[in-house]
Design goal:
This protein is α/β, with parallel strands linked by helices. The chain has helices at about 15-30, 60-70, 170-175, 195-200, 265, 275-290, 300-315, 330-345, 355-370, 375-380, 390-410, 420-425, 430-435, 445-455, 460-465, 475-480, 485-495, 500-515, 525-530, 535-550, 550-555; strands spanning about 1-5, 35-40, 80-90, 100-105, 110-115, 140, 145-150, 180-185, 210-215, 220, 225, 230-235, 235-240, 250-255, 295, 320-325, 350, 415. It is elongated.
Length: about 575
Amino acid sequence: MKICIAQINTTPGDFSGNLARILEGINVASVDHCDLVIFPELTIPGYLSQDLLYNPDFIGKNLEILNEVIEFSRQVSPNLHIVLGYIGRNNEGIGKPFTHMAGVIRKGELIATYQKQLLPFYDVFDELRYFEPGDQITVFKVDGQSVGITICEDLWNDKGADDYIYDGNPLEQYRVAGVDVVVSLNSSPFVHGKCLQRLEKITPVSSEGMSIVYVNQTGGQDELVFDGQSFVVRGGRILHLSETVFEDSFDIVDFDSDVDGESLATAKTRNVRLEDLLVLGLRDYVVKSGFSQLVLASSGGVDSAVVCKLACQAVGPENVHAVRMPSIYSSEHSRDDAKQLHENLGCWDYEVPIEHEALVTELNHLYSIHGDDRNLVSKVIAGNRYMGVANENIQARLRDVYLMHFSNAFGAMPLSTGNKTEAGCGYYTHFDMNFSYAPIKDLYKFQVVDIASGDQLIPENIWKKPPSAELSHGQTDEESLLPYSVLDPIVMAYIEDYVTTFGRFCEWVEGQFGDDVKVSGDMGFLRTWLEKSDAINDYGRIVSLIGRMEYKRRQTCPGTKVSKVAFGIGRRIPIVEKWS
């Protein structure tokens, strides 16, 4: 059997664009005399389409495209079987209105269909909101071999990969049925370690008698990024692993060849790079939104430097506009570092100084002349309760205004430069975390530094100097919070593993040492800090802060999700609550 793995980048509702990619894959497979071409999950409508499904014309258009593919199949090799995903209607009169389908097309006919059985409803997934689950397997013949179909979650119920355990196990059903090949259609978003997890869980369950073909989509969609990494396994060995990330790929795998494949240990060395996926997620968000130009505030700090670098990789440096907005507190080295960065990357450099002191004075004067002694302004001033931090933060608000003016006037999408650790602690103003998209929103500080330190185009001083918002003389982030080597793992443990007590945090840290997983820029410093007498109080202060800042995080823009639990899609915490 000769198969084509059609690893493509779909977009929800882009029926013509998705169809063009489908037809390209069919043509490639036909020209190469393939017996089977497999596309990702929900190929025709795109994934995630979410509540677009409720539009009365959406499902009809999706079925119309399905019929176009069926008609097109008359023009290609009569031996080619086309497997792709679409949305069906549930006509049973009970249950959810739609069905999550895979269809098998050959010679102008829909010869078989499969209805997804296991519908995830956790993290970013909400398939039970829309779809009625199936309960039957589907087997069809290709070149004398029996082929079964699964869709994403159907393949995972016996892997212990998630906390959800379903009653059914489609993969076991196919094993009992004695099929030769199981093809799995997937739209599986990237999460740290997930590419390797797929291989580790799926490879061992293949056998000499049953091959597994795993086809995953690629590309960015809102906050999600799909890493592709499609593969074919048989007999505990990997026959093929797709490595293309940025473009559609149509890889051909011949089961009848003498290729023995590679071991799992060898394949582990070819994992997709985090930086590439960040670029892919940003590129697709920009391009699919109809933009070509990007603008960001560049402070000379490591966060904005990495965002600037990712932007240049995503759309080209000639389309990136980096604006330096120094205030009276901005250091000369920050100005110089940012300017050198822009020169190294080849993007556009602008300097637009801000002046905030006179504005603050004028604002407070205008507020104070209204009302009488009962007025809020008068009471605060009389009671010496004026919040001086507002004078600092107005610098960020001015930068927000200037950057949005650039965006509105010249048509460039504005990027946010905030990271996950800052978001966790609410240590930002709207300037840091608003705008249209936040490429490093789901990266902890040490991950941002790792990217910066690995690139010679980013001046060394940018990632080596103490992080600072430079809103007052001598200010540093770590004085206000904790050292990032401690802060990163506190936020990570709280958000991703729901660790909320100091004792459990200590155990969590030790577990990371055992698993050899990096959770801090300095694991030795973290361990030493845990022994300090005031560590428990500082830990409690930060955890309380994280819980209180949900209202602030809810106002931030979307950003690429790369961790197990990210702020935004998939994390559903009440804004007003008394638990955290």
